[in-house]
Amino acid sequence: MQSIPISHRLFAFLIVVAVILGTASIANALPVSGRDLAQSIICKVFSDLQARGLYNRGLAARCNIIPPPTTAKLVVVKSVQGSTTTPSAFTLQVVSGSATTTFSGNASGTILTFAGNSVFTVSESPVTDFSPSFSSGCSGTLLPNSTTTCTVINTFTGTTTATTSTLRIVKIVEGGIATSSDFQISLKKDNVHVTGSPQAGSSIGTTYSNLASSTYEVSETGPANYDAVFSGACNGTSTIMLAASTSVTCTVTNTFNPPLMADLTVFKIVLGTTTATSSDFQIHVKSATTSLDVAGSPQAGTAAGTTYSLPFGTYEVSETGDLTPDETSFNGDCSTNGGITLTSTTTKACTVTNTFNNAP
Questions:
Q1: Which of 12, 248, 298, 304 could link 284 by a cystine bridge, Cβ 3.0 to 4.6 Å?
Q2: CB atoms closer than 10 angstroms to residue 360
Q3: 317, 341 in Cβ contact below 8 A?
Q4: Domain 261-356 is of which CATH architecture?
Q5: Model-level pTM?
Q6: 20 CB-near residues (< 8 Å, 6+ apart)
Q7: Does 329 or 45 have the greater pLDDT score?
């Protein structure tokens, strides 16, 4: 067919619009000699309009144009409740006429296309311990140019078995004289001891069974000067996030970290008119923090001096005895009241002097 001038196309467009609106059959009103040309123009323009989605049954019949086919969409959504089973574990079918479409479930929906006015039914292959339910859009007729949504919900109806976990706590000691059993290991949930906690540490490991999935706290008590490191399931912290149906091991390693030590020598001197000697007095060295005697204290005074090996810290030197001197003084590295702080490995010395001015 030769090309149609734009002016003729515009004229035909007006005719098509008029026919579609049902106002008149302008082509029939033309003289017979012009009808063939008008008919050709109208059908050409209508064919173009139909390609753009505009369709009129009357013009289609006049121009002998076959109406375009219609389709419909079906969206099948799969949902699972009461179970961790995924939607893809279920097999669905859509039956339409003699055709059956089979596919796996999808939570986002599976989109299927059918001819308009198709009759359909959605079904599912049975799965043990699950009960299916179908929404209203899962059967019926798919209207042309429509989208229908069918939702299939599977609810778990089986018995859920409680899942528990096992935790083994291994105790390792490196350095020093302490052993694993010198430490008490505690395992708590919500700040409450679990059954069997606390227990003495074990290098083989202490096992706690039938633990629910939850957060647990591992702690210990034991000898001083040991640094603890948590590894394995503890992952660098004393807190464990215990998942269901797992068996894990937490290792607590204690490494001996001896304190820095210093020597303190206490000399005892007695002066004046007296028969008393240094050994008549008991020399005390006490922790300024606890007011308790350090190891080896008290001891009888001696002019040669008594040496104590002590961790860095603050201490107090004092004395007791049955005799009362006229004057008692503290000299050397001690303060006037007998206090002394050890902060280096250099040996410190303190002299306690008793002076008697009158004979007893």
A1: 298
A2: 9
A3: no
A4: Sandwich (2.60)
A5: 0.43
A6: 54, 56, 59
A7: 329
Give the integer Cα–Cα distance in Å for 163 and 247: 12
DSSP state of 57: H
Q: What is the CATH number of domain 71-156?
A: 2.60.40.1140
C-alpha–C-alpha distance, residues 127 and 117, integer Å: 31
Residue 183, Cβ density class (10 Å: 0-12 exposed, 13-18 middle, ≥19 buried): buried
Burial (0-12, 13-18, 19+ Cβ within 10 Å), 182 = middle
> Do 71-156 and 165-256 come out as alike in CATH topology?
yes
Residue 126 in contact with residue 81, Cβ under 8 Å? Answer: no
Q: Are 248 and 207 in contact (CB under 8 A)?
A: no
The span from the first CA to the last CA of the chain, in angstroms, equals: 150
Q: How far is CA 43 from CA 4, 5, 84, 141, in A?
A: 12, 14, 60, 34
